[in-house]
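Lecture 7 notes: from sequence to structure.
We start with the chain below.
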Amino acid sequence: IYTLSLHDALPDLSSGINAEYGDGELAFVSALWFWMTPQSPKPSCHDALVGNWVPTEKDLKCGRKPGFGVTINIVNGGVECNHKPMKSKTFHRVETYKLFCKKLGTTPGANLNCETQQQFAAFCG
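Predicted structure tokens for the same chain:
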């Protein structure tokens, strides 16, 4: 198992943060760190998508189940989740995910959206 440490992965920023923006290294490493790192009470996006995350009783009461939908919740739940009908940008995010899955020869799985999920900070029940 590979564990990414932000401290180990970040470039040397002692010369100023703007120096790193040009090559995208900081943006890539930051995105990878965010994808792989749980931020309590949220699981990591990676764990939620690959089935490593097991929802608690509270998660289930809040409508959160493993799948792509919960990754949307982790990243942007307060804005995109628990909206019926699903917001346009969320719909397009799900459709793009399904397109990538098709191109990669895999299936998108279940629980693709978060329209019935409460955000992780919510009290459910």
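Points to note: The radius of gyration is 16 Å. The helical segments are 6-9, 18-21, 25-36, 45-50, 57-61, 68-80, 88-103.
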